[in-house]
Amino acid sequence: MKWKITLCEPDIGQEEIEAVTNVLKSKWLTMGEITQEFERTFAEKIGVKYAFAVENCTAALHMANIALGVGLGDEVICPALTFVATAHAVRYTGADVIFADSISEKDLTVDPEDIEAKITDKTKAITIVHYAGFPCHMDKTMEVAKKHNLKVIEDCAHAPLAWWQFEDGTRKFVGSIGDIGCFSFFSNKNMTTGEGGMITTNNDELADKIRLLRSHGLTSLTYDRHKGHARDYDVTMLGYNYRIDEMRSALGLVQLKKLEKNDKKRREIYRWYVDTLKDNDNIVIPFTDRNLEQATPHIMPIIMKNSYQETKQKLRSAGIQTSKHYDLIPTFTLYKGSKFKSKTKHINNILTLPMYPGIRREDVDHIGEIVNG
Predict the structure, then answer these.
(1) How far apart, in Å, are the Cα atoms of 55 and each of 91, 111, 195?
(2) How far apart are CA 96 and CA 123, in angstroms?
(3) E-strand stretches of 55-196
């Protein structure tokens, strides 16, 4: 089907094409100088000590769990409302996933109180997700983690450059608050490399582990040996092939330059949607009571109280692409033994509307007319 208005659309232009072309001309395609620059630039941007570019966010999440010592017999708490990769990354280690609920229909981030209620003597870590680009309540989350001596993984797939202001006035970017941050650069994300991701930490010991985990446990990389910085290598732990390549790192550097501008545009588009939908009593628009300047709207979820399927079909018939972020993970066959039940009444009626920097005000108004019916 040819959509009149797509769900998402990357901001790709001539600068990205030239960046990739320059890498191809250099004839060094595997992880090297461009990747190192990408990592340095990203780390500086979010105010974190270490950043490692990786194959995708799932790889980042997997390494985060491994680096924190998660394994067989452990439990990791994560939101029920997230992409399944967040839970899969825990299961890869042999640990069990315990699901926590969203705060409410108005705030779909994970509830710190429900996290604390799910903690047992088997709990090893907490994974939180900055859903839709809106940061989780990090004061309360970190208090719970500290109280119970638990590690925190931030899934920042939706939220590059989102930030949280703590009660003492301190502001920190997501991915620099917990023990490890994980970012996605998938094709629909706020910044994209097609596939790709980043894992961040301020902890020296965790950084050493992640560096080894990313590339087969090798103590030196191909690029190090190519440049004469190392002559050989040892293998000191069981690692993975989670490396990124130079083409995607080149894309990432260009996309990172555009990120603040495009995040600002996404906030404007979120306001357009609120303006056109605010009088519709049949829907809930999440996050309208949040400080939007802290957010990086990645998707535009609304919750339908009634007429969910009917509205989806009307939008489809008009050539407007929609989605659902997300079906709750415990509803999938693999996770049905979790016994999770959400307190959020209409959580299964999430409808994701088009959101990307290139969408026009008239497009949003047209979508609003259909939703408002």
Answers:
(1) 19, 30, 7
(2) 9
(3) 75-79, 96-100, 123-129, 151-155, 163-165, 171-173, 180-184
Stronger pLDDT, 223 or 257, i.e. the higher one: 257
Distances (CA, A) of 233 to 221, 238, 266: 8, 14, 45
Q: What is the radius of gyration, based on Cα positions, of the chain?
A: 21
CA-nearest of 104, 137, 141 to 119 is 141
Grouping H, G, I as helix, E, B as strand and the rest as coil, residue 16 is helix
Q: How far apart are CA 115 and CA 99, in angstroms?
A: 8
Question: Within 10 A of 312 (CB to CB), how many other CB atoms are there?
Answer: 17
Q: What percent of the chain has pLDDT over 70?
A: 97
Domain boundaries, the chain: 14-256, 259-372
- Output the six-digit token pair for 278: 């605010």
User: Which candidate, 260, 86, 111, places its Cα nearest to that of 182?
Assistant: 86
pLDDT (tens digit per residue) in 179-219: 999 999 999 999 999 999 999 999 999 999 999 999 998 87
pLDDT of 233: 81
- Average pLDDT, integer, range 358-367: 98
CB 25 within 8 A of CB 213: no
**How is residue 78 written in tokens?**
């994560």
Return the CATH number of 14-256, one of 3.40.30.10, 3.20.20.80, 3.40.640.10, 1.10.3120.10.
3.40.640.10
Which residue is listed with tokens 């825990």?
A: 90
In the prediction, which pLDDT does 222 show? 65
> What is residue 217's predicted lDDT score, i.e. its pLDDT?
85
Whether residue 225 is predicted with pLDDT greater than 80 in this model: the reply is no
For residue 311, give the amino acid letter: T
Q: Does domain 259-372 have CATH number 3.90.1150.10?
A: yes
> Residue ranges of the alpha helices (H) in the chain?
14-26, 33-46, 57-67, 85-91, 112-117, 138-147, 204-214, 222-226, 246-277, 308-317, 361-372
